[in-house]
Amino acid sequence: MPQRNRVTPYGEIVASALRGRWMGNRGCIHRGHDVVRPWNGKRWITCALEFKGWVAPKWAPGRWTALFFHDEAVAFAAGHRPCALCRRADYLRYRAALDAPGADAIDARLHAERLDGRRKRLHAGAWRDLPTATFVDVDGFAHVVMPDRLRRWDADSGYGEECERPARGDARVLTPPASVEVLRAGYAAQLA
């Protein structure tokens, strides 16, 4: 039975059998095997599943909560950034694209951009300017932007049906502007 530790592009934490290709955390947000709050702090990171032979403990009392992402594009949409330890090269590319002095500045910016109170903050963005791997909301469903199309995503099956990418107008963007800026600068986020 799936545990509630998978993250959607909306930043929600759900139970899903969908395989996570990345792990991350938002601090200690669990008691037992239950997620009891959506985050604890501004440092939302995306980690490798293992690092130098080390695999993070799951559900350890008082330790950070291991969360899982279908792919890196989902992690970016949820508001996470690459870990500065286990994903050092990716973190440095992300930081350089933002011209940020360090993790604290990135985390403060992402925190302001990903949340509207306790809800997911959506941003307007011109369809023509959205880079590949950006997530958008179309009629209440998450879609990843591809060069000439959109692919719908859901927590049960991952990527599914495709539709044409609009050429004009504005999209309702799930991915925070900082990560959109990083993608636009050439960071190739991993897609499943």
Would you give an account of this structure?
The model has no long low-confidence stretch (mean pLDDT 95). The chain is α+β, with helices and mostly antiparallel strands. It is 20% helix and 30% strand. It contains four helices and 16 strands. It has two domains: 4-119, no CATH class; 121-184, SH3 type barrels (Roll). It has a six-stranded mixed β-sheet, sandwiched between helices. A six-stranded antiparallel β-sheet has the order 11-16-12-13-14-15.
Radius of gyration, in Å, reads: 16 Å
Tell me the distance between the termini. Answer: 22 Å
Average the pLDDT over all residues and give the rounded result: 95
What proportion strand? 25-35%
Strands across the major sheet, in which order?
2-1-7-3-6-8
Biggest sheet details: 6 strands, mixed
What is the succession of H and E elements? EEEEEEEHEHHEEEEEEEEH
Whole-number count of domains:
2
Figure out the total of helices. 4
Q: What is the SS-derived class? A: alpha+beta
Give the secondary structure arrangement, pairings included.
Elements (H helix, E strand, L loop, with lengths): L3 E4 L5 E3 L6 E4 L4 E2 L2 E2 L9 E3 L19 E3 L2 H7 L2 E2 L5 H11 L4 H12 E2 L2 E2 L2 E4 L8 E4 L2 E5 L3 E6 L3 E7 L5 E4 L3 H8 L8
Parallel strand pairs: 1-7, 6-8
Antiparallel strand pairs: 1-2, 3-6, 3-7, 4-5, 9-10, 11-16, 12-13, 12-16, 13-14, 14-15
Helix pairs in contact: 2-4
